[in-house]
Design brief:
Elements (H helix, E strand, L loop, with lengths): L3 E6 L2 E6 H19 L7 H9 L7 H21 L2 H12 L4 H8 L3 H19 L1
Antiparallel strand pairs: 1-2
Helix pairs in contact: 3-6, 5-6
Length: 129
Amino acid sequence: MNDYVVIEYNSEQVSVPKGIADFLEQDRMREQAQKRQDARHLSKSEFETVLSGSDCVRRPVEDAVLRDLRLENLRGAIEKLDARDQKLISLRYSGELTMEEIGQVYDISKMAVSKRLKKLHEKLGRSVF
């Protein structure tokens, strides 16, 4: 039942339960697949992926705990952003404005909005996991 396996974590060998090792391996594979995708433009669905978490956990209690933890981490990370970045996130995801509409608010191009959102998405993504 309590099978342990040795994994490498931060360049050290660590013994962890097999279920956790499987979860980490699936998460690593998901991250690699995500990196291979062409992510030129950030869409709402990509940002919402951060909130929904990974599908590899099959236990509802652990899944709910992980989701709550990710949301708490995301809220904290958003609070640490400067006011301009918070407003950008708010316009895109709460105000549901298009990148073009946001560009008009800031007097910048749609591509500049996309790049800023992508950087924010990456920054927030690191805070959530």
